[in-house]
Amino acid sequence: MFSEADLIRFWQLNVELQGRPILHDIDLTIRKGEVVCVVGPSGSGKTTMLRTLGGFTPPSAGRILFQGQDIRKPRQDIAIVFQDYGRALLPWRNAAKNVELAMEAMGKPKAERAPEIMRLLTMMGLGAHADKYPSQMSGGMQQRLQIARCLAQQPSMILMDEPFGALDAMTRQTLQDEVLKLVRLMGTTVFFVTHDLEEAIYLADRVIALQPNPGRIGQIFDVDLPHPRDQIATREHPTFLKLRRQLFDYVKSAEQ
Ligand SMILES: Nc1ncnc2c1ncn2[C@@H]1O[C@H](COP(=O)(O)OP(=O)(O)OP(=O)(O)O)[C@@H](O)[C@H]1O
Question: Which residues form the ABC transporter domain (predicted)?
């Protein structure tokens, strides 16, 4: 039922909130190292799906499994990056101290923290900004910092809820490439919620399109595009253009 390569299994998952069915019969397996993007009309349950994975919203029926174990509460090996970096970061701590927060929560010995903090900040392009406070950083830098802090948890999986929605187009593309780099270097599994269909195709190995009322999986699109992805070449690739058309048509019909 569960293979070694599988990390996550949604099994006949149903979620009701305040007596209303929000997610209906979700069946989905996510493999280790896979990037899964979730799209769908507003209210189709994308965030709710992410919250069940994060251990914040329990199933009303069915199961949600991490390596075969039910997810019943937030886990250290599943990190979450929120869209609202302003609220996710602590304004009274500088960048290094924000990253250290995750290490404090894990109980990592103090002596081991400093080199690891610098490694993560450098990896996210913030090596020269360790002493800066969030208010002294651009939106893109703050989002990088939030990702660095997540990585300090050494997660096997990162959940991202519209993480780049508030950023300008150029910063957004740079951070998309950072996410793909992480996956390549660290084998992290990514569950990424977005409204931006092109972003979904660019990042994903599979795009899950939800349908609303109640939220359910409408269609799964395999993204058969070569790696490494490239902001120009990938977006001009015939497969990208074909998928973009299919996905736009699909989501438009789901919204009607
Ligand atoms: N705590 C809650 N109690 C009751 N209903 C809720 C709760 N949280 C979400 N919902 C409802 O669940 C449905 C799905 O919400 P969810 O946020 O998962 O959708 P979404 O696809 O992420 O939407 P959006 O694209 O607008 O962010 C919506 O109708 C929402 O009103």
Answer: 8-237
